[in-house]
Amino acid sequence: MSDGYISSDEREYFYIPDESGNDVKFEILYEHEDEESGYTYILLIPPLEREENDDDDDTLEVFPLRYKTSDEEPVYELVETDEEIEKLEGLINTLMEMDREVELEKDELYRDKDEGPLLDL
C-alpha cells in the first residue's frame, strides 16, 4: 500500500473483526507515514460511505488507526489523542480541498455539455 491518497479506481480495503469475530470491511481512504512519530496512520471509511456521500455533503464518518512498522506483525490502535486527531483533521481537510480542486479542473475542461470536452482524457 502506498503513502497518500488512494483514488476511487484503486480502492483498497481493511478488515476489522467485530465483537462476534466477523470481519467488517472498511475502505482505506488515506494512508500516511509520520516520520516524526514513527507511526503510520490509516483513515478508514465504511465502503458505502463514499457512494452515499457523492452529493455536495462533505461529511464522512472516518475511523483513524495507527501502527508502527517493525519486524513483527503490526499492532493497530485507534487514534484517540487530541493532538493526533487534530493533525489528522488537517490531513482530511487538505485531501478534501485537493479533491475539490481536481473536480474544478475537470469542470473547466468542459465548455458546455452539448459542445463536448476541450481535451479528450
The main pleated sheet reads as: 6 strands, antiparallel
Low-confidence stretches: 1-7
Structural class comes to alpha+beta
* Share in helix: 25-40%
Number of strands: 8
Integer average pLDDT: 76
N- to C-terminal distance = 26 Å
Topology:
Layout (H helix, E strand, L loop, with lengths): L3 E2 L7 E5 L5 E11 L5 E7 L1 H6 L10 E6 L8 E2 L3 H27 L1 E3 L3 E2 L4
Antiparallel strand pairs: 1-3, 2-3, 3-4, 4-5, 5-6, 7-8
Using brief descriptors, characterize the structure shown.
121 residues, two-stranded antiparallel sheet, alpha+beta, 27% helix, disordered N terminus
Describe, in plain words, how this protein is organized in 3D.
The protein contains two helices and eight strands; from the N terminus they run ββββαββαββ. The chain has helices spanning 47-52, 82-108, and strands spanning 4-5, 13-17, 23-33, 39-45, 63-68, 77-78, 110-112, 116-117. Strands 1, 2, 3, 4, 5 and 6 form a six-stranded antiparallel sheet that branches. Strand 3 and strand 4 form a beta hairpin. It is globular, with a radius of gyration of 17 Å. The protein starts with a strand and ends with a strand.
Short description:
By secondary structure, the protein is α+β, with helices and mostly antiparallel strands.
